[in-house]
Design a protein that fits this description.
Blueprint lengths: L2 E6 L3 H11 L5 E7 L2 H11 L3 E4 L8 H11 L4 E6 L4 H10 L3 E4 L4 H12 L4 E2 L1 H23 L2 H11 L4 H8 L3 H15 L4 H10 L5
Parallel strand pairs: 1-2, 1-3, 3-4, 4-5, 5-6
Length: 212
């Protein structure tokens, strides 16, 4: 069985390196390449690949947004992220966007080949370094969600206003409570979130997407 592969990366040196590697695999057919997510979407519609190797940081439309759109429009096409980034802002959004694999660019070429074959069978493959971070991130998300549930409705309202950069007086006026009550709520919020000040509390809430 021949696997039709589309390469998406904004660096020609990466594209050419991948082409050179896959030339030695007769069951891989590189049907095309794209230099950004926007071009990738058009190539997918024209070329109908089986697998896409997708970079993340690219101009116009990044790899995560492109993956989201591709997997929604073409759910049978498998997207494997091939990137240099293993941070929280890359891993979780990529997985949530529908990527079936996540490999770093330092991956052993044979492992990359195994990832592609596994993807054709509907199996997920993740770089060990990414898997470790993913487990940590999931644990952190669960902890954050637990802390969120610890907050009362009024404390959540106060915290939301804090994320908007409002002062205690403004919060008191908006929620029709006294300044003293606002201070009490903030004190309890800091304790429950285990942070030192209102700025850290706001960052914690925003980082965990509590108020989308």
């Amino acid at each position: 069985m021949t696997i039709k592969l589309l390469l998406v990366d904004d660096h020609f040196i990466v594209i050419n390196g991948l082409k050179y590697f896959f030339e030695t695999h007769p069951n891989i057919q590189i049907v095309g390449h794209a230099l950004d997510g926007e071009e990738a979407l058009q190539q997918v519609r024209d070329l109908h690949p089986d697998i896409i190797l997708m970079d993340i940081k690219m101009p116009k439309i990044d790899g995560i947004e492109a993956t989201k759109r591709i997997t929604k429009e073409f759910p049978h096409i498998k997207v494997i992220m091939l990137t240099s980034f293993s941070d929280r802002e890359s891993i979780l959004p990529a997985i949530k966007a529908g990527a079936i694999g996540y490999q770093l660019k330092d991956v052993d070429p044979d492992i990359l080949m195994e990832t592609i074959v596994a993807a054709m069978d509907g199996k997920k493959s993740i770089h060990p370094e990414v898997a470790d971070k993913l487990m940590t991130l999931v644990a952190m998300e669960e902890e954050a969600e637990s802390r969120r549930h610890d907050l009362t409705l009024k404390e959540k309202e106060v915290l939301y206003h804090i994320t908007l950069g409002k002062s205690n007086k403004e919060i008191a006026a908006d929620l029709q409570i006294t300044d003293k009550t606002v201070k009490t709520h903030i004190s309890k919020i800091l304790g429950k979130l285990e942070v030192q000040d209102r700025t850290q509390a706001a960052l914690y809430a925003l980082r965990n997407n509590w108020f989308k």
